[in-house]
Amino acid sequence: MPDLDVLADPSDPAVQRLSDLAKPARGAVRTAIIEDQEPLVQALRAGVRFIEVYGESTREFPDDLAALCAELRVPVRLVEPAVLTKVFRSEKRPKVFGVANIPAPARFSALAEGTGDVLVLDGVKIVGNIGAIVRTAVGLGARGVVLVDSDLPTIADRRVVRASRGHVFSVPVLLESRERVARWLAESGLRVVDVDMDGSLSPESLGELEGDVALLLGAEKTGASDVLQDLAADTVSVPIDSRVESLNVSVVAGIVLYARSRRSA
Q: How far apart are CA 36 and CA 161, in angstroms?
């Protein structure tokens, strides 16, 4: 690739702008840093608009990322290690990252445009689980993911972007209140299936349910709220050995999504 401009002066105003963006977000954001190669590539492919992409000056910039940036006309700059340390305030820093304009928050109308099941995560707060579930949802053809009481200020939270490998931008991911979700589920016409420890159906039987459904999952210890459970037409559980108290919610999500994906096989 051609010679790239190098950001080497820690006092450069651009460095302060990057440092500000690297701080944890406390509310909805319009601009954010996306870290690491795979999340960057997935975000670019999903249509996220990037202002600029950066790479560490002492490392080879990835060829496939360079080609994608060139194709999409996204500027690329290199950054000296000392500047990266100032930006991320740690020796642990990304090899590549980009500054992106974050898409407007998804609304319920976005879920009406596609096909596939909808995942509703009620009270799931661990960002690693949320990111893993979003990635699985994309891989197994879900229409979207609705997050209720997640404590996330934005889907562009760097931890979620990293855990989802950038796929948080590949499907609609909504941050909504429990009351609004209950109202939407009641009006959507989707059959609500509560995934619960005491469910009456097995995952295999999910393949027998016709049409798209809303799969309701709660936190591992508490399950979903009564408000949303009351909307369920069916309950399903994953049988496990009695020596194990419960399964991680991201594992359960993968099992039921896979079972649903097999219905047309």
A: 10
The kind and range of the H/E element at 133 are helix 127-139
Please report the DSSP string for 215-245 in residue order: EEEEBTTTBS-HHHHTT-SEEE-----TT--
**Amino acid present at 223:** G
| Residuewise pLDDT in 10s, the chain (265 residues) | 567 889 898 888 888 899 989 887 666 678 999 999 999 999 999 999 999 999 999 999 999 999 999 999 999 999 999 899 889 887 678 999 999 999 988 999 999 888 999 999 999 999 999 999 999 999 999 999 999 999 998 999 989 999 999 999 999 999 999 999 999 999 999 999 999 888 888 888 898 898 999 999 998 778 899 999 999 999 999 888 889 888 899 999 999 999 999 875 5
Residue 203's nearest CA partner among 124, 247, 257, 264 is: 257
This prediction's pTM: 0.90
What contacts 164, CB < 8 A, 6 or more positions away?
Answer: 39, 130, 131, 132, 134, 135
Q: Which domains does the chain have, with CATH numbers?
A: 6-101 (3.30.1330.30), 108-262 (3.40.1280.10)
Classify each residue of 129-161 as buried b or exposed e, where b means 16 or more C-beta atoms within 10 Å of its C-beta.
Answer: bbbbbbbbbbebebbbbbbbbbebebbbbbebb
Residue owning tokens 């990635």: 135
